[in-house]
Target: Enoyl-CoA delta isomerase 1, mitochondrial
Amino acid sequence: MALTAVVRIPTRALLRPWARLRDSALGWMEPVGGVEVSTQRFGSQRVLVEPASAAGVAVMTFKNPPVNSLSLELLTELVINLEKLENDKTFRGVVLTSDCPGIFSAGLDLTEICGRNPAHYAEYWKAVQEMWLRLYLSNLMLVAAINGACPAGGCLMSLTCDYRVMADNPKYAIGLNETLLGIVAPFWFKDTLVNTIGHRASERALQLGLLFPPTEALQVGMVDRLVPEDQVQSTALSVLAQWMAIPDHARQLTKNMMRKPTADGLLKKRDEDIQNFVSFISRDSIQKSLQMYLAKLRQKKG
Ligand SMILES: CCCC/C=C\CC(=O)SCCNC(=O)CCNC(=O)[C@H](O)C(C)(C)COP(=O)(O)OP(=O)(O)OC[C@H]1O[C@@H](n2cnc3c(N)ncnc32)[C@H](O)[C@@H]1OP(=O)(O)O
Model:
């Protein structure tokens, strides 16, 4: 990895993220225009990737202030950087964490699913699906270092990891709170939760839109370990060190055996899932609910 070189990601690809993904897969780069990305950190504007001091480990830090909402850009950069890590065979494990104080991720960016047109909803949902599929089926060992609030899509992202370490701060909460917004978590969100905490606990958590404080999240199995806030990342790294002792091929095949049936559920009907999302989110009643929720969030300060 070069230490100082700067590469440029083409502006057109930022505007058309799927073109950019394809271009990235082909190793295509444009020499002029676009966004500067330092290969020193391997990352991009909203997703920093730094090699950890332990060999084979990287830390992926989300930096999309103020709340790390999962905008189209963040989702795209996440997938691109994950792909780069997977292609670079020196990396075996990644810690996912946040640069936004007190917030891991606020979940889906509500401005992406509110007041836009059907084509945008379809493009956005495809990006959400892609994020989930890539993380959920990743051959890398993924550990979430949850250093703040972790609702909805943020929780989903952490649930794709192999292990979750959360800051033991009662101000933070984690869960799939979609029903509180008047929306319904899709079947693959539900499946991911069921695979983590079981059917009965998921049924209750999903219907009530529960956001669990850390102690309850640990009890229900939504996170694996609580530590003081300043030890979240170091603990995640030491967990990874333990997982690294397992031979990769055996662990990867096992992970795939456990997760593939769930991922196949979406892979078999991606287009149908996009259509369902677009028609659901475009309903007037749903748009009204989302607008009211956003307005409440914005009023909090006033
Ligand atoms: C079929 C549909 C399926 C959909 C599936 C998935 C659902 C989702 O993921 S929807 C998103 C659900 N997310 C939430 O409910 C979290 C909402 N946010 C919060 O609870 C708080 O913001 C949070 C605890 C994360 C942080 O609190 P604070 O530190 O107090 O920050 P503020 O609340 O003041 O927020 C700052 C700023 O950010 C805007 N914001 C917050 N969340 C989002 C979001 N998810 N998307 C877009 N924007 C968000 C908030 O409105 C504030 O904006 P300004 O007022 O303009 O500064």
